[in-house]
Amino acid sequence: MLLSSKDKVFIAECTAELITSSGQTGKRYVPDPSAEKIYGMDDAPFVLDCEFPFEFVSTPVQILTSEKADGVISVLPEQEINEGDHVEFDGVQYKVLTVEALNVFGVVSHKVVTVARLYS
Length: 120
Fold this sequence. Notes:
By secondary structure, the chain is α+β, with helices and mostly antiparallel strands. It has helices at 5-21, 61-66, and strands at residues 24-31, 46-57, 71-75, 86-89, 92-104, 107-117.
């Protein structure tokens, strides 16, 4: 069954409402484009790019351990976020490990992002 454009918009709106109603916001940090990168992306300083709404996804410890991750979040489909970015929630910084856009009946409803905590 194909969904109408109206149905696709409804799915996207419902998912966005769930994410934004969580009341949680994070910060996205990206490598400073003007900094010299001698050893790759991770040695460059990271600068604040934006703040964004997210929803924490309760994930079983066994799955997190097998993926070598510390958490999973959902973000809006239009949120720019890439593997290797750093994100911050409640004063704790994480490295983005994976970003997966989820497709629900032909519409990208949200992105699922796995993160690993950064220890300084």
